[in-house]
Structure prediction request, 486 residues.
Amino acid sequence: MGGSRLAERLSHHVALSRQEQDALDRLEEQERLFRRGAIVISENDGARELFVVRSGWLHSSLNLGDGSRQIMRFHFQGDIIGLPLLAFSESPESITAVTDVALASFTRERVAELFDRHPRLSALILALSVADRVSLADRIASIGRTSARARIASLICEFFSRARILHGAGADAMQIPLTQEEIGDATGLTAVHVNRMMRGLADDGIIERSGHNVRLLDERRLISEANFTDRTGIETDWLPAPR
Amino acid sequence: MGGSRLAERLSHHVALSRQEQDALDRLEEQERLFRRGAIVISENDGARELFVVRSGWLHSSLNLGDGSRQIMRFHFQGDIIGLPLLAFSESPESITAVTDVALASFTRERVAELFDRHPRLSALILALSVADRVSLADRIASIGRTSARARIASLICEFFSRARILHGAGADAMQIPLTQEEIGDATGLTAVHVNRMMRGLADDGIIERSGHNVRLLDERRLISEANFTDRTGIETDWLPAPR
DNA sequence: CGCACCTTTGAATGAGATCAAAGATGGTGG
DNA sequence: CCACCATCTTTGATCTCATTCAAAGGTGCG
Prediction:
């Protein structure tokens, strides 16, 4: 089963005290499995729990009235999902499992306890949430002000950058278990146009594709076409003392 | 000078203890003024302080390589700005004063103190930050999946909804001190097209314009065309006990 | 009063959407 | 193990919404 995935994530940034480690372990006592395609939290549902991703890919999305969908963000191991529950009783977004996933669930009362007892962890969670917000802002700029090709390039950059946190820095190839429709829903494009753009990137020798595997051939060019900025490192020197 | 604007904002949601009130007042000891157009925080600058907006409008934006700009979010009285400083040493975004503004500045060490001493305020700040994130997500859906007309409508809805928190629920008219270029930069459109869409909304009897004043004539229709969801109320029953 | 900036309108262009249909892939049950 | 069916990818043709380019009015501030 292994320890807390959130603790793993946080310990990339600070050395956790034993008490902090324990508190985080307790958050992940409840493990739940969902199949590929399962809806973990449904838009406008009274959500009751938050989750930490233990393994797998998910996305959060918004369904527009006319049947179209916007995917806001993808979630990986160590991510906290369902944070909107801290502000709203009905979930503003749907969370869907992209692959089979294992999640650890906990209530917001657990979060209250954490804030009460562990100021440093609380501040760190705020910092992560702020970093997440900045990524969303980057996505807005990508969708609002760049070409279809740049949006696809940017999404690929983001996937590599986030995968490298989990699986080491070197990798130049990875599985992206998404359909072109999902990529379109994340970038504000149609599946057809996603296909043309990905083909374009491959034809120009920037990436190589086979099935859902993507290899970077010219990473520098991809980054520059995407206008991509890596936002993985976060600042921790200001945090309050651990308990 | 008056008390803390952040305290005012938070007291819409919970009754603050005397100690909490005092802690927030201390955050806003330093008042600073900026003229319309001034850049408060510049992208890629080593930012050193956070701010609470005491009065005026600002926006945060990202400048793309090719000279285009994306405005992520507008900020009003009681908003905390510069939160990215909690995660990044260099600001990922620029903050610009849209009107003359008064800001209260404080350091992240003050935030650390707050987390150490006031778990309920900390949790509340996280909740506000999460609510802000949800608004950004709504904006992504608007830009990624809706027509130019709907994006403009949605922005107008957001302005009214936020203005009503500050100035009472009834208002059906307000000043929107933005140029059409700024509206375009926020919605991912060109100024020319913003003009056409606003004219369209006015021609169809949905809004009425004179100068920068906008009056709602058919609010229901505006909301429905915009696919707008109001996200102003936030949940507070889960928060830890006050100190 | 004059100049800079903003708004408005028109005409031409273009990026991405839509519609349609032919391959490829893969999971399921027989 | 393989055949079948649903789903996904790929490609072509056409259309449309928003951009671009251009230029004529407004507005307000110094």
